[in-house]
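Hi V.,

Quick status before I head out on leave. The structure for the redesign project is tokenized and pasted below; the design run finished overnight.
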């Protein structure tokens, strides 16, 4: 788990988490939608030996194969400047704004079992939320 991510979520980065990286694309479009990096807790690495990147999400596959139950997901959105590598992958200019969505997935014992970071081009991303008010 990268030190900056571990520090932001308040856990130790000394363990060797299994990592995944992918680029999301929409059919028929040239520019990528996002870069996603995910890290799985060392205790669950064996549950992903036959991981299928074309199937369900990592957390769904972990739930199906390891018996964990997702109890909570936290999400943090942060604006950053695109690094040279990120800009190249997302077909944009270095330094342009990107939004990083950092998610932590907690199991039934309140343990973080997966962390994911998706980086979206700022100009190609919108976030919407629906809030119902109690009357």
């Amino acid at each position: 788990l990268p030190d900056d991510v571990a520090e932001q979520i308040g856990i130790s980065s000394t363990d060797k988490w299994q990592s995944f990286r992918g680029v999301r694309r929409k059919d028929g479009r040239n520019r990528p939608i996002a870069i996603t990096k995910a890290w799985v807790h060392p205790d669950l690495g064996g549950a992903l030996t036959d991981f299928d990147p074309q199937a369900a999400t990592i957390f769904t596959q972990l739930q199906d194969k390891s018996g964990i139950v997702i109890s909570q997901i936290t999400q943090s959105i942060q604006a950053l400047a695109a690094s040279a590598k990120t800009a190249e992958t997302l077909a944009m200019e270095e330094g342009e704004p990107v939004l990083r969505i950092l998610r932590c997935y907690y199991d039934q014992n309140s343990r973080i079992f997966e962390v994911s970071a998706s980086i979206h081009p700022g100009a190609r991303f919108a976030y919407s939320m629906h809030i119902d008010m109690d009357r």
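Above is the designed sequence. The radius of gyration is 16 Å.

G. will cover questions while I'm gone.

Best,
W.
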